[in-house]
Amino acid sequence: MAFGIRLLVWGERACFTRPEMKVERVSYDVITPSAARGILEAIHWKPAIRWHIDRIHVLKPIRFESIRRNEVGGKLSPASVAKAMKAGSTAGLATFVDEDRQQRAATVLRGVRYLIEAHFELTDRAGPDNSVGKHLDIFNRRARKGQCFHAPCLGVREFPASFELLEEGVPLPEPAPGVEANKDLGWMLHDIDFSDGMTPRFFRARMQGGVIEVPPWQAGEVKA
Q1: DSSP characters for 156-219?
Q2: Exposed/middle/buried for 73, CB within 10 Å: 0-12, 13-18, 19+?
Q3: What is the separation of C-alpha 145 from the centre of its chain, rounded to a whole number of angstroms?
Q4: CA 126 to CA 129: how far, in whole Å?
Q5: What is the pLDDT of residue 21?
Q6: Which candidate, 118, 103, 119, places its Cα nearest to that of 68?
Q7: 37, 68 in Cβ contact below 8 A?
Q8: What local confidence, expressed as pLDDT, does residue 48 receive?
Q9: Quick one: how many helices (H) and strands (E) in the chain?
Q10: What is the Cα–Cα distance from 90 to 110, expressed in whole angstroms?
Q11: What is the mean pLDDT of each run of 10 residues along the chain (224 residues)?
């Protein structure tokens, strides 16, 4: 597509948590489309555009390792926050990390590198000052300079993502030795439907030639 982008992302560790694992964190084999979208939005996002992930190239072998991480056991309830907002006071609205810290096992990915191919479309919130060319230029300029609104991560905040724009005309990078070309990755989280009560939607992910084709959001193969 004329307004598509290609972005290399990599990092030392990653954890794209499977939602079916309620207690211990276990990562998917590769980055999910929703996590890839989050990285793009960290570089450039406005209400006028919506990112769509087209395909993901896996450039390093899939390797797992087990670690232990400190996490906070609970979180503030939405009702408590709403009550504080209504009262105009945050008195008593606090979480003491030292009193609620838990150590949990996690199965994470080690040494990841992906090429994300994506495009965006204008939403109904785009005004007359918004155009595809304008937002594409902004994204490319920011990605070249390494600029982002917040630090992009590989699933969780502890695992930062490095990124580099792959310019138009530059050949695709070769995958590292040992990358499994074809693999059925099972059902994978596609993204969250925020317009439908934050309903997760899934698709059957298959890696062919080291590439995962991501179906469009509204495709029939994407299931809630």
Answers
A1: EEEEE-EEEE--TTPPPPPPPTT--S-EEEEEEEEEEEGGGTSEEEEEEEEEETTEEEPPPTT-
A2: exposed
A3: 21
A4: 8
A5: 78
A6: 103
A7: no
A8: 93
A9: 3, 11
A10: 40
A11: 83 93 87 97 94 96 92 80 85 79 90 97 89 93 95 94 94 92 95 86 95 92 86
Q: What would the two tokens of residue 132 be?
A: 């595809």
Q: How far is CA 85 from the centre of its chain?
A: 30
Q: How much is the pLDDT for 2?
A: 47
Q: What is the pLDDT of residue 1?
A: 45
By CB atoms closer than 10 A (0-12, 13-18, 19+), residue 43 is buried
Compute how many other C-beta atoms are within 10 angstroms of the C-beta atom of residue 201: 17
- State residue 3's pLDDT score: 67
Q: Which backbone phi and psi does 93 adopt, to 5 degrees?
A: -95, 90
Predicted TM-score (pTM) of this structure: 0.87
By the 8 A CB rule, do 45 and 56 touch?
Answer: no
User: 222: which residues sit within 8 A by CB, 6+ positions away?
Assistant: 190, 201, 202, 203, 215, 216
The residue written with tokens 């009193």 in the block is 99
Fill in the amino acid letter for 32. T
DSSP 8-class letter at 100:
S
Is the Cβ–Cβ distance between 140 and 165 less than 8 Å? yes
Tokens of 42: 């960290």
